[in-house]
Please model this.
Amino acid sequence: MHKLRDGPFFKFLQSTQEAIVLPAFVVIAVRPRPGVWEYFRVNGYELTVDHLSVSEYLRFKEELVDGGCIDSYMVELDFEPFNATFPRPTCSSSIGNGVMFLNRHLSSNMFHKKEILEPLLDFLRAHKHDGLVMMLNDRIQNISKLQSALSRAYEYLSKLPRDTIFRKGWGDTAQWVSEMMRLLLDILHAPDPSTLATFLGRIPMVFNVDASNEIAAELQGVPDLIIGNYNDGNLVASLLSYKLGITQNNVGQYESHAAFTLPGQYRVVHGIDVFDPKFNIVS
Model:
């Protein structure tokens, strides 16, 4: 018994999450580590083991439910190609740290490719609320001018009382505005993920419900259902659903949505990828 416990077969059994028995086969879903799944078929008569694709494994689950009446024309969904070029972590220990990964990836690109900073400049210029400029005006046309303007503004702020009141955007006091500009200067000179995360986290983000009109125009009609993702997404979905008079649904992201089947309707062979940063945030 001790030899069995110390062997690879016991570790294999410990990683087994599901088992389907359809004589003469036992079909097994194994999760060797978080976010990673493998599927096997054991032939009890021939004592052979075959590796299965996701689609093949789901077919066995459907057969268990439908009693062998497999619909060869059932819709099969694979969302993997939509995310093929998007950066993502590979270690299971990174699950739940999607924002940190993206900040590291972005700051690394900023360090090696200064032109990657241009979208940040565009974002700061475009950040408005009710037509009011929140961060930068159109006179700041490039990174060089931004650095120069920030340096002058930072020096000016250092001479003001810390509690001097400002219009919200960069901050509502001289101290807060000064800290924001210092963070951005640090990012422009030597970007790092911690500074980038702190700066982005302090930018006031405003969602205007009046955007419901643009959404309806884009869809050429009012949707029947709106789905919110995570805290901010759920808040926006609640506001929009109330404004448009439609149903709101909240969706959780779990490993069980990576591959699943609704027998007789459709099967998903690549759904939620827990390594994808957009599904990889603890909130």
